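Sample 3 of the quickstart, ligand erythose-4-phosphate:
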Amino acid sequence: MKFFIDTANLDQIREAQDLGVLDGVTTNPSLMAKEGISGEENIINHYKNICEIVDGDVSAEVIATGYEGMIKEGEILAALHPQIVVKVPIIKDGIKAIKYFSEKGIRTNCTLVFSIGQALLAAKAGATYVSPFIGRLDDISTDGVELIAQIAEMYSYYGFETEVLAASIRHTMHIVQCMEAGADVATCPLDAILGLLNHPLTDIGLEKFLADYKKVNG
Ligand code: E4P
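Result:
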């Protein structure tokens, strides 16, 4: 399973990249706003900076909601760097735009997916990634991880090449559950990735190894 980091914070992206296990980055307009990135030029420069830090795919979201606007924005974003994946919402014009991008060889991440039917449309349009938002489903008492499992099974049954990118991950257990459900990618906050390291027996074991070494080596 690939790991993407879900942030526009350059320090966090660097820290995740330094771990050596990072496969990419996802951003969205809210994450860019959180970092205070505004204005077309700054946004574009920020995407370029992210691409310089990481080796993998970097999702950059279109703001337009109409077909022509999405195409125009998506082509500008895709031309910024070969690592850019154009993020498009699952709306009617979004599906048309994904189909257009797919025919042009521009990779896409279909976002704001909350149902298996939406995931079917995204795959049929040729999306590179589909992003089901599991945390936001959990927030309304609906099992987000179950949706990941359903989409993964459906894509495998029909042989779709679209990768299931589990998004809106809130904590470490979500990552483990998405892995078990067959997600191809999990995009996570840095804390959730680092949380995978934690085990009390590791801490106790390491402490004992170091104490035993010290006993005989001083
Ligand atoms: C990533 O692609 C999504 O935009 C992001 O994971 C949404 O997460 P949130 O539900 O925590 O805002």
